[in-house]
Amino acid sequence: MRPPLIFAVSIRRFRLALILVIALGTLALASSKEARAPGSDEAFPLLGRIVVVDPGHGGIDPGCHLDDVTEKEISLSVALLLAEELGNLGGKVFLTRTADVELSSFGRSMRTRHGRDLEGRVLLAESYKGELLVSLHVNAANSEKMGGGMVFYHPGSFESRKLAASILKHLREVTPGDQNAALPADFFVLRRAAMPAVLVEMGFLTHRQDRAVLVSPQGQKRLAAAIARGIEEYLSVDPPLAQEDRVEAGVPFLHLYGLGTDGAHECPLILSQSQPGSQVGGP
Ligand SMILES: [Zn+2]
Questions:
Q1: Dist. CA 1–CA 195, nearest whole Å
Q2: For residues 187-194, average pLDDT
Q3: Partner of 74 at 20 to 30 A CA spacing, among 11, 14, 64, 196?
């Protein structure tokens, strides 16, 4: 019969083992913060959560534009600020782009460059193992009166709908307007994303107050903070929403958007405000 293991261990080895046990204990204590359940840290409510932020358009695709202001620039600026906000809350944030580029090289199966660009955004979000996909956009309309932030979700995703309502609740404080709503839409990115996904139209370039928010550094910071707050609330166990913040299904939205061949949203043709009569908007 073999002697018990403890007798086989010399004093020297015992000391070594003791040091190892103490060292491992210290390591476990040091890493206990990382080991906590996601969202359980008050100072870092998004610890362990993964959010993918998608700045809409980029490269040869400016998105909506009015005079020299382009949607692709605004969406990237706010995305970088949003990543900072979420990072400060402990979240792990991935951006689909951090420069003025389009993403069609990441797409695989779609026929058109635009389709592959949209597909690339979804595939990137999946490769990052994102829990949420938040795509940032800027709106435009033929009427200068139409204004306000909007959030779109796929009608087949209840979680996306909850996320949309949570973001809208704060976004409407920054870009209030008659179009404020969380609405269902069959946009490609929303339809194809495997995780809860929303498309945030932060405001209208063609609306004076919205545009002032969209183009100013302070306004962009407020937009990022509002969207981050909505994401944080959604991720921290679904806070109850006030009646006026609940989304209404079935509200018409096609008056604003033409659905492209790939199901992406298109900007309406809008008039340049400094050069009346010229068409500056486009798909
Ligand atoms: Zn857009």
A1: 58
A2: 93
A3: 196
What is the domain-level CATH number for residue 88?
3.40.630.40
240 CA → ligand 1 middle, Å: 30
pLDDT tops 80 at residue 80 = yes
- The Å distance, Cα 69 to ligand 1 centre, comes to 13
How confident is residue 175, by pLDDT bands cut at 50, 70 and 90? very high
Distance 21 CA to ligand 1 centre (A): 56
Within a domain: 273:
no
Distance 248 CA to ligand 1 centre (A): 23
- Number of domains the chain contains: 2
> Per the domain annotation, does 279 fall within a domain?
no
> Do 9 and 67 belong together in one domain?
no
Between CA 40 and CA 227 the distance in angstroms is 21
- Same domain? For 10 and 55 the reply is no
Q: Are 263 and 187 in contact (CB under 8 A)?
A: yes
CA-CA distance, 130 to 94, in Å (whole number)?
Answer: 8
Expressed in angstroms and rounded, the spacing between residue 65 Cα and the centre of ligand 1 is 10
Range of the domain at 88: 50-266
